[in-house]
Amino acid sequence: MIYTVTLNPSIDYILHVDTFYEGDLNRANEAAYYPGGKGINVSRVLSRLDIPNTALGFLGGFTGQFILDALEKETVQHQFIDTQQTTRINVKLKSSSESEINGPGPDISKEKQANLLQQVGQLNKDDYLVVAGSIPKAIPVTLYQEMAARCEQNEAHFVADTSGKALEALIGTKTFLLKPNHHELGQLFETEISSKEEAAYFARKLVKKGAKNVIVSMGGEGAILVTEDKAYVANVPKGTVKNSVGAGDSVVSGFLAGLVKTNDIKEAFAYGVAAGSATAFSDDLATEAFVEELRQQVNVETVN
Ligand SMILES: Nc1ncnc2c1ncn2[C@@H]1O[C@H](COP(=O)(O)OP(=O)(O)OP(=O)(O)O)[C@@H](O)[C@H]1O
Ligand SMILES: O=P(O)(O)OC[C@@]1(O)O[C@H](CO)[C@@H](O)[C@@H]1O
Question: Which chain regions cross the lipid bilayer (predicted)?
Answer without folding.
Answer: none
